Amino acid sequence: MFEKPENARITKDEAERYGREINARSAKFENVEVEESEMVTPPNQIPNPLTEEEIKRRVGEQNYKNSEEGGAMNSINS
Questions:
Q1: 69: exposed, middle or buried (Cβ count in 10 Å: 0-12, 13-18, 19+)
Q2: What averages of pLDDT result for each successive group of 10 residues across the chain (78 residues)?
Q3: For residue 6, is it within any domain?
């Protein structure tokens, strides 16, 4: 697959080719079967985006304020 000494640098094209080969090899072992219950949602069944009030209600108002202010991001789920 990839024949170069361990300490040799590879070019961008070689790295991309190597990545594609690894992805193709990994894809052989992945479970790609999709159950009917997990099929893509039709566009007419996609819910509307959440409003800011709904987000505040779900995560808690203080968590929402903390996430909006920036700074150090703590877990919203705490």
A1: exposed
A2: 71 89 86 70 82 89 79 60
A3: yes
